[in-house]
Structure formats: C-alpha cells, structure tokens
C-alpha cells in the first residue's frame, strides 16, 4: 500500500472499545470504514485495565463473600492460589493476543491498517506501519479520534529510573511484590490495593485527599474502613515529593512524601489520573494543540474544525472517562455520522437517538472493591450545585432480608437522590457486597425519569437485595410528611 491514498467514508484512529463500536456503527450505516491501531485491537480496557483488573479482583470478592457464608468459611480459610489467579487473568486478557478482535472486525467489513496514525491536514491521515511503509488515507465524511488516554505521571525527578508501575504493569504483573506502595485514591488505586493485598502484598496507600473523592463521601469512607481492616496502611494528606530505587537502581523503592514521611516498597504504583493520548497524532496539521483534550459539541464534532469532519469520541473528549461510556458515545457518534452522510436530520433532543444525554445525566460506574461501590447520576452535592432541589434518601442495606441471606454481618448503604420538582430519581449510590447488580435498575430509573409514585408498582422479589428499592420508597414516604 506504500504510496497509495485509499479513500473511505470514515477513518477511525484507535481500535479500543470506543473505536471498534464507532466503526461498527458507521459500517452498519452503510459507510466504508477503516480503523487504525498501533497496539492491540481492543485497547486499554481489554488488555491492561477492565478485563485483567476484574479478573484479578473476582477471586478476591468471591472469597470475601464466601467467608461470610455459614458452611463455607473453613473451605476458604487459606490464601488465594496466586498462579491460578494469574492464569485466569491471562485468559481474560486473551494472553495479550488480538486475533479474535481482528476476526470480528473482518466480520463487520471494517478494514484495518496497523501502525501509528497521524492527521496530515483536513480529512487526511498518514499511517506509519510496523514494516516502515507510509499509508495515506482520505476520509470523505469523517475522521474520528478514539485514541483514549494514558497514565498521567507526576513530574518527579528520577521517576523514570524507578520504573514505576502504572495500571499496565499492575494488571499484567507476573509476580506479587512483598511490598507495594500505591500513590492515589481513585478507582485504579483502590482496586489494585484491594487485589494485591488479598494476593499477599503489604500495601501502603499514599493519598493526597480522600478515597473515591468524586463519589458520595460515605463510599470512600466505607472502602477506607474495609481496606484498613484487610491490613492496608492508608495514609491521607500525603503528596509524593521524591522517589528513588536503592542499590544502584536494582533494589527497593524509597518514596518520600512532602511531610518527610518515607515508605520503602518493592514496587510503586502511580494511579494519579489520566492524560489524553493526543500528543503525536498530528493535531498541529489542522490547527489544534497536540497533547490536549479534544472538547466536542453534543454530536461529538470538534468545534474548532469549521468544516465539521473531525470527531473525538470516548475518553479523549474528557466527557466521561469510562469504557462503557465511550462505547455509548461511539454508538451515538456512529449514528450521527451516518445520518449526516445521508443528509438526514438529527434526533438530538434530550434522550434522542443522536443525543449523548447520559454523559451528563446518567453515567454509571462500578468500583470492584470489597465492598463494591455502584453509582449512577449526580451525587447529592453535584445535584445541588446544578441547581436542583433534591431530597436525599439513605437506607442501611444490611437490614434487607436479601442482604442477611447474602452474607452474615452484611454492611452496606444505599442513597437515592430525588428531584423534588419532578418527583423522579436522578441519582443513586450503593455500597456493599454484590451491589453491582443493583446498578442497571437504578440506571433505567434515572434515564426513564420514572416518577417515584410509579416505582411503587415495580415489585422486588423476596428475599433479594433489590428489595432496598422498596425500603427507600418507604423511607421517602415517611420522611418529613412527604407522600410517595
């Protein structure tokens, strides 16, 4: 293909879940589509994030549940079988091979060019292939940037020499370090602290603020308590000021914090946020700044490109940095590109087929710690900041018969946010074992804008944890004379 410049209706940069879904939807709309990828098809989620991390965590959570069930405790008293856990992780990450993804791409008639793709002017992409060729691609209708994010490492002297772990090294680890320092308090930090503590590491967390700071405060507090009960040393108010690997760069890592505290560990994991993967994709050739986020309008067009051919979908646009949300955006963006190519009007009203309303109103998230955390929509504070008048309804999930059946000593909490003007649920947070399975019902309630009066007719089966919905409605009805 050297020296050629094939034309497609759509050129997609990045074959993670977002890029794959977008390519699938544009192809389904009848548009010729090519996808460009310089790593593994399936991206971060399939090979270094969602899939391998949850494979590491599943045995941890299953053992924790079993330890609370009479008749099972003795069977799970011993340590986890680390080689078996890693073998399961390897299988869930497809042993870091993407043949199945390539086969799927072919089944939906999307072309693939492997290599590093860069914009090269309006509607033009140049790909440097692994064998040194340069392939030029032209987009008739759209170029979609779906390149995602990379770990945002702090600017610390000598950090590269320490060979720090990011999510990639943590999820692909071949052995369990005796001592692991985790820097950060977000989802990656708490999930990997949970996993490696259960696998046998002595874990120290260095956290500048609190844990899970973007969620309801009680979520971070309950996860903190559980981590400490598991033996994790959680230290708040700590910012890392220096790192050094001892013994000429081959020994343990000494981490120094701004208050003079030190932690010595065999490995240090930095889980301090994400940065856009846009530094070397040719943005400068179309008048944009390399290395920055790509803000978009609600049709996922980059507004600085007046001709309207450049789209940014998934994490790279900084709207909602989660795999499932990127796939949601991709489904909508693919339909938008297809409609525009055919000259069809957009259904872009709230909750319309071409509107990404969930990005702002109903983003779901699960944190696979012990206990689990599941949420959708705004927190109480976020709702109030958005100008909503809301009622906050809390309930102790441990009082539910289904929770008692699930595990002895079940500890959990539910919070539902009700818009007092419209009398519908706008947000929900659940913390406790097994609560991930409560999330979709909450998401349906939020996106459907179901009035609380109608929710009375959604009867939860007995005895299940989902009966918490009934208890929440009863609590709301009986609080401050509010009828429901």
From TrEMBL:
Single annotated GO MF: dihydrolipoyl dehydrogenase (NADH) activity
Superkingdom assignment: Bacteria
InterPro entries reported for this sequence: Class-I_Pyr_Nuc-Dis_Oxidored (IPR050151), FAD/NAD-bd_sf (IPR036188), FAD/NAD-binding_dom (IPR023753), FAD/NAD-linked_Rdtase_dimer_sf (IPR016156), Pyr_nuc-diS_OxRdtase (IPR001100), Pyr_nucl-diS_OxRdtase_dimer (IPR004099)
Co-factor remark: Binds 1 FAD per subunit.
Residue sites binding NAD(+) per the record: 184-191, 273
Disulfide bonds: 45-50
Name of a matching Pfam family: Pyr_redox_dim
Reported cofactor(s): FAD
Domain named Pyridine nucleotide-disulphide oxidoreductase dimerisation: residues: 363-469
Boundaries of every FAD/NAD(P)-binding domain copy: 8-325
Record-listed FAD binding positions: 54, 117, 315
Keywords attached to this entry: FAD, Flavoprotein, NAD, Nucleotide-binding
Keyword tRNA processing carried by entry: no
GO biological process: 2-oxoglutarate metabolic process
Entries under Gene3D superfamilies matching the protein: 3.30.390.30, FAD/NAD(P)-binding domain (3.50.50.60)
Stated family: Belongs to the class-I pyridine nucleotide-disulfide oxidoreductase family.
Protein name: Oxidoreductase
Organism of origin: Streptomyces gancidicus BKS 13-15
């Amino acid at each position: 293909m050297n020296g050629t410049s094939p034309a497609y209706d759509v050129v997609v940069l990045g074959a993670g879940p977002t890029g794959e879904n977008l390519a699938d939807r544009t192809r389904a709309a009848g548009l010729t589509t090519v996808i460009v990828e310089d790593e593994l098809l399936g991206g971060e989620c399939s090979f270094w994030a969602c899939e391998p991390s949850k494979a590491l965590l599943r045995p941890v959570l299953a053992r924790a549940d079993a330890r609370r069930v009479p008749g099972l405790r003795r069977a799970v008293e011993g340590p986890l079988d680390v080689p078996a856990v890693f073998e399961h992780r390897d299988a869930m990450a497809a042993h870091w091979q993407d043949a199945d993804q390539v086969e799927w791409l072919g089944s939906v008639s999307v072309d693939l060019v492997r290599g590093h793709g860069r914009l090269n002017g309006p509607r033009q992409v140049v790909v440097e292939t692994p064998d040194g060729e340069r392939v030029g691609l032209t987009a008739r209708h759209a170029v979609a940037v779906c390149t995602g994010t990379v770990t945002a490492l702090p600017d610390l002297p000598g950090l590269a020499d320490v060979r720090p772990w990011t999510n990639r090294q943590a999820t692909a680890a071949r052995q369990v370090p005796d001592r692991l320092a985790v820097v950060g308090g977000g989802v990656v930090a708490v999930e990997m602290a949970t996993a490696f503590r259960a696998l046998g590491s002595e874990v120290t967390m260095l956290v500048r603020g609190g844990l899970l700071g973007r969620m309801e405060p009680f979520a971070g507090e309950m996860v903190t308590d559980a981590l400490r009960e598991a033996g994790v040393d959680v230290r708040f108010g700590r910012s890392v000021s220096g790192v050094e690997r001892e013994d000429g760069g081959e020994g343990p890592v000494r981490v120094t914090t701004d208050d003079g505290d030190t932690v010595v560990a065999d490995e240090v994991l930095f889980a301090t946020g994400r940065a856009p993967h846009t530094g070397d994709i040719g943005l400068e050739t179309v008048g944009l700044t390399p290395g920055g986020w790509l803000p978009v309008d609600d049709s996922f067009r980059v507004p600085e490109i007046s001709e309207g051919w450049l789209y940014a979908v998934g994490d790279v646009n900084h709207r909602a940095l989660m795999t499932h949300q990127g796939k949601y955006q991709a489904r909508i963006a693919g339909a938008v590109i297809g409609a525009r190519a055919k000259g069809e009007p957009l259904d872009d009203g709230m909750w319309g087929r071409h509107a990404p309303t969930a990005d702002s109103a109903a983003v779901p998230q699960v944190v696979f710690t012990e206990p689990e955390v599941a949420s959708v929509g705004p927190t109480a504070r976020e709702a109030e900041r958005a100008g909503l008048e809301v009622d906050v309804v809390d309930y102790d999930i441990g009082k539910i018969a289904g929770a008692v059946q699930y595990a002895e000593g079940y500890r959990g909490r539910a919070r539902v946010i009700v818009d007092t003007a419209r009398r519908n649920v706008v947000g929900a947070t659940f913390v406790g074992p097994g609560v991930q399975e409560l999330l979709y019902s909450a998401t349906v309630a939020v996106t459907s804008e179901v009035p609380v009066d109608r929710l009375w007719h959604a009867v939860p089966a007995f005895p299940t944890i989902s009966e918490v919905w009934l208890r929440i409605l009863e609590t709301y009805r009986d609080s401050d004379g509010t009828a429901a």
